Amino acid sequence: MTGNEIREMFLKFFEGKGHRRVRSSSLVPHGDPTLLFTNAGMNQFKDVFLGLEKRDYNRATTAQKCVRAGGKHNDLENVGFTKRHHTFFEMMGNFSFGDYFKKDAIAFAWELVTSPQWFGIAKDKLYTTVFNGEGGVPRDEEAHAQWLAQGVPAERVFELGAKDNFWAMGDTGPCGPCSEIHYDMGPAASDEGHTDCKFPCDCGRYVEIWNLVFMQFNRDAGGALTPLPKPCVDTGMGLERVAAVLQDTISNFDTDLFQPLIRRATELAGAKQTPDASLRIIDRNKYGMVTAGVQPSLRIIADHSRAATFLISDGVIPSNEGRGYVLRKIIRRALLHVRFLNGPMPFLSLMAEAVRSEMESAYPELRESASRVDRILDEEERRFARTIDVGLKRLHEEVKLIQKDIRRATPFPGEKAFQLYDTFGLPIDFMRDVLRDEGFVLDEGSLDRAMQEQRTRARASWKGGAKEAANPAYAKIAETFKTEPDFYFSTSAKDCCIEAIVTKSG
Length: 506
Ligand code: SER
What we know:
Layout lengths: L2 H14 L3 E2 L24 H4 L9 E9 L20 E9 L5 H13 L11 E6 L9 H9 L7 E4 L1 H4 E3 L4 E12 L21 E14 L5 E14 H8 L12 H11 L12 E3 L5 E3 L1 H20 L8 H19 L7 H12 L5 H4 L1 H35 L9 H11 L3 H10 L6 H20 L1 H5 L2 H9 L26
Parallel strand pairs: 1-2, 4-5
Antiparallel strand pairs: 2-3, 3-9, 4-7, 6-7, 7-8, 8-9, 10-11
The structure holds serine.
């Protein structure tokens, strides 16, 4: 089954069980200041769970666009270096608003996953988990009994604590105990080389494919749990993960959801893709930097192209604050890896076209926003080109100096990284990637100290003697406008506007 077929089958299954097929909501959560981006299928139903909003259906099913970067669930730094982390992903779910509860939710899930008419996944590859009780919420006896009623052997039903089996959308809002289905990918999937570890080892072999949340409470800012007006169901199945299972591959990046994008990036960059994902080609790009295997770079470009295309399509614009800042980080991280591969410019708008051709049948809004998305991506690419050229060359020089000292095991000094960040605007997480490929670890302690010192200096400059000398208007401006250091190096951007002019007199 292709990714598109899996998505369709999921939605069809639940339509057959009386659920309304509801379109994915935007990645920009409307009217919810607690959320940076839509990060779960239930976001658009938050007020329905809380009893604040009524719909003309009490069962729904969706395939929801989600981004987990920069907010409570932040996966950005891991993307590219694992088989399963993404910034953008699709979450398929079924929802009950005060209608059915644990019994039906578990029966539906088990049928869809195991029935040969549907996904037909072998039962002996599956494990389930239930909440074992913590923090005043009792053990989930009902869920336990329902898995057994489905014929899951008792030794495959595990009881875990709140970390694994209590789900909350954010620090406040609807939440409740959950129950998960995990798939055994086999020893080859272990990131730690385990050959016979047992569930629930978290080495990568056992993969959570579906989370069934039994929404029972609303958590307030003080952490207190109040029961919801009616218990509800919110489930989430990661399309990319289940595609890996059904397409019999251990990495999400080897599924048909990513392969066409990886092929396109390979083609554009002229990079050689190795069939063995673990093989690392050591090569040098035009900056002389070691590109430790093109695989992580290709995965990062594929993943981030999806995120950037969808985010811009949903109205986010790269900027130095909030959502726009996270989008800028995603785009720039992708561009850094385009550079590693010596890719041409423009690159990301061509990737965006590849994203559209794979996904516009499920998300028609992608076609409508195409020219806007491409224009914004091209502009951001040009803007970053200057920063990255200067900053990367300098980083490379620093690395060479240390390598001369034959101290490769030495951490890369945090003060140096800070200097590059401060002077050239080279983002810290980009440096981490570059240094990782060079065999260095960034010294986070000294970096933190340098950052802290800068904050202290900045504060002192407004508090101490400098305050007398500086025009107070600068302090006012600094309260409102934040800029990244690299802002000062690229003032040719077309979408800038003058917000304030400081004159001698104030
Ligand atoms: N909200 C739950 C999750 O995101 C289930 O959909 O995992």
